[in-house]
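Retro notes - structure team

What went well: the batch runner handled both jobs without manual restarts.
What didn't: labels got mixed up in the shared folder, which is why I'm recording both outputs here explicitly, each with its sequence directly above its tokens.

Job 1
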Amino acid sequence: MPKKKLIIFPFNGNGIEALDCISTDEYDFIGFVDDIRKESSHYDIYTRDILNQYREVYVLAVPGSPASFRKRQEIISSLGIDSSRFVSVIHPRASVGRGVQVGMNCLIMAGVVLTSNAQIKDHVCILPNSVVHHDAVIGDYTLIGSNVVIAGGTTIGKNCYIGSGSNIINGISIGDASLIGLGSNVLNHVKGNAKMVGNPARDLNAHIKQEVF
């Protein structure tokens, strides 16, 4: 069976690390697509034109950072490709338990553990050595850093950023477009568009509003 030709978008840290997750038996990596002209001695970097010129090429889209995570849906949608062209990539050293569901265009890196019945929705990135426990739900377009622990029955909303080293207690929900800062311990429900930091985590946005008023 011929290999699938694969493009990664964009040429960023997530994209470079995604190369370690790709099966060379399944995929023929063509290069990166990026909106900013960049030079690399290691990889071919193309404009978006290649996506229209070669419609048989599959795509793994992994944009996003603490500064831009809320725009992930807009950025990925702007590629204008059919959903059938997106692929999900799971590192061979990730552990996927029984009943786990992984959506389209997801990147699951080395050492990640997804336990029983966890749901990973579409366009999610999970960096190395993070654990998503039983029955947790990770919403569309969410980014999860490395060494994160998300306890059982927790629901993470859409377009969130969960910073590396953070811990989230069982059975709570985190609202859409929230940022959980590095190393934070989240012990209570979190409203949407929050900016949580510390141990226990508190919402910096709410603190700023209190100071203003």
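Job 2
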Amino acid sequence: MNIEHLKKIAAEKATEEVRNGMVVGLGTGSTVYYALLKLGKMVRDGLNIVGIPTSDGTEKIAKEQDIPLSTLAVHSTIELTIDGADEVDVHLNLIKGGGAALVREKIIANASKRILIVVDESKISRVLGTSFALPVEIVRFGWEATQREVDKICGRSDVRGGIENPLITDNGNYILDCHFDGISEPEKVELQLNNIPGVVENGIFVDRADKVIIGTSSGIKYME
């Protein structure tokens, strides 16, 4: 079945949990895109919500879809966040950051009462780090030294976009894509990476997701 269809059905299913008057965290990525389109239609049909976006790209799409936006300065608590993931393990731990928004996504996740993760079936793994490199956002100053320390943990990392033309995040930083043979202790690795000077945040999300909505060739499935 078409992978875009699987993304669409998962994302649209998540929007069914959005209620009138909610403050909603708006994730980033190709699957969440379909949730933004659906929420836009719901708003135009009379739904009253406020969205808090996790990236400049999501903010742009939300504005195009007429979704009212706010910030954490105004709304310190988010009732429901809909976001995607690049990899999900059997314990609902996540790797995120394929869209380079992992820092803001983790800030939004931390402020959220409930988090729905929307994915297609290809994103499910028994162990994290087996099908997707782990993104680590680092400051640009002294990045070579930071990368050397990161590589002591993961073995090998690549500067996203390449050294000659590196991707710059919304926060003005670089991303290292770190290659593991599997991350059996994600909470430990998350803390180890974040203790390195120069690391802003990494894409491991432990004990964050309340429900994972999966678009599969046989319909919608859930993990919770």
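One thing worth noting from job 2: The helical segments are 3-15, 32-44, 56-64, 102-110, 143-154, 186-194.
We'll revisit the folder naming next retro.
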